[in-house]
Amino acid sequence: MTTERQVYLVDDEAALRRSISFMLRTAGFNIECFESGEAFLRAAPALAMGCVLLDVRMTGMDGLQVQAAMRERGLALPVIIITGHGDVGLAVRAMKAGAVDFIEKPFEKARLLESLDIACKHHGEEAEIRRIAENARVLLNVLTARERDVLDGLVDGQPNKAIAYALGISPRTVEIHRANLMLKLEAHSLSDALRIAFMARMIGPDTALPPNSSAN
Fold first, then answer.
1. How many other C-beta atoms lie within 10 A of the C-beta of residue 110?
2. Domains of the chain and any CATH numbers
């Protein structure tokens, strides 16, 4: 088993640890579980390279606190955030702090494996990271300038009313742009759209993207 196939699961729900462990072992991963952020951090300095599946809401240290502690201690393991449906805002904060992806509960096996593939490539060859980012950028290029503005606001965690105020348009117009960008990106949820936006930034800020000429 290579270290690229190593997964560290940090979650305080025993049932979830069991189900994810079974799912990943049958997919060929080696998995080690931790029932708290504190337990993971104690063991982390001696762990081999791998990907960390980190629940955002736990008793004791939450996922964001664990992520911050990893950064302070120089632990360069790629992190995937596990989040509940109502925790997308927290997941966005985690992505801004360096997480490579996030998945919402309940998630399917294919979605989890996709996320792990992204994380493994994140500490792999630079060419693979660039390919993922470029694919995301191609998707974003179908958006109008105004749709990109709305998506940027969503990435910043702003509600529709705040985005509308910042752009000088009505909340209803924001809703229309939001619906249109979701359709163009083939995003089934807000988290899908946010993942694409963050993937596009894996090799640099999205300000480096070619500007879209349409301002509708």
1. 8
2. 3-124 (3.40.50.2300), 130-208 (1.10.10.10)
